[in-house]
């Protein structure tokens, strides 16, 4: 049995850091070629934590985009209500960061992403 035995030298901290990849790169690779995923949603995935902040970006994610409407899935009903109140603020933040975006309306939907 290998229990308690090392199979090689311990990794150095700098070696571990080299294994990390930017989230935007991972998401782009993950969704590349998937049908139905609009480029507007891909753009948002890359900057979503900057728009929403660290806490909200964990409970709300861009889901679908159709005819100018971005649907955002929210995992918690309390946050869903809060985000509905901040709808204009969030839309303005998106427009500031992606001026050429096609989003004209936000809809929040309770669910998992």
Describe, in plain words, how this protein is organized in 3D.
The chain has a domain at 37-110: 2-Layer Sandwich (GMP Synthetase, Chain A, domain 3), CATH 3.30.300. The protein is 47% helix and 17% strand. It has helices spanning 13-18, 23-31, 39-52, 56-59, 77-85, 87-97; strands at residues 60-66, 69-74, 105-110. A 3-stranded mixed β-sheet has the order 1-2-3. It is built from 6 helices and 3 strands. By secondary structure, the protein is an alpha+beta fold. Helix 2 (23-31) runs antiparallel to helix 3 (39-52).
What tags apply to this protein structure?
single chain, 113 residues, alpha+beta, GMP Synthetase, Chain A, domain 3, three-stranded mixed sheet, 3 strands
How would you summarize this macromolecular structure in one to three sentences?
The protein is α+β, with helices and mostly antiparallel strands. It has helices at 13-18, 23-31, 39-52, 56-59, 77-85, 87-97, and strands at 60-66, 69-74, 105-110.
């Amino acid at each position: 049995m290998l229990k308690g035995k090392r199979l090689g030298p311990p990794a150095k901290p700098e070696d571990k850091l080299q294994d990390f990849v930017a989230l935007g790169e991972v998401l782009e690779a993950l969704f590349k070629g998937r049908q139905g995923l609009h480029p507007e949603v891909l753009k948002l995935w890359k900057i979503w934590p900057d728009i929403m902040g660290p806490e909200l970006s964990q409970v709300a994610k861009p889901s679908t985009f159709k005819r100018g409407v971005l649907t955002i899935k929210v995992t918690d009903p309390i946050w869903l209500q809060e985000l509905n109140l901040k709808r204009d603020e969030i839309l303005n933040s998106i427009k500031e960061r992606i001026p050429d975006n096609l989003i004209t309306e936000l809809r929040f939907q309770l669910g998992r992403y």
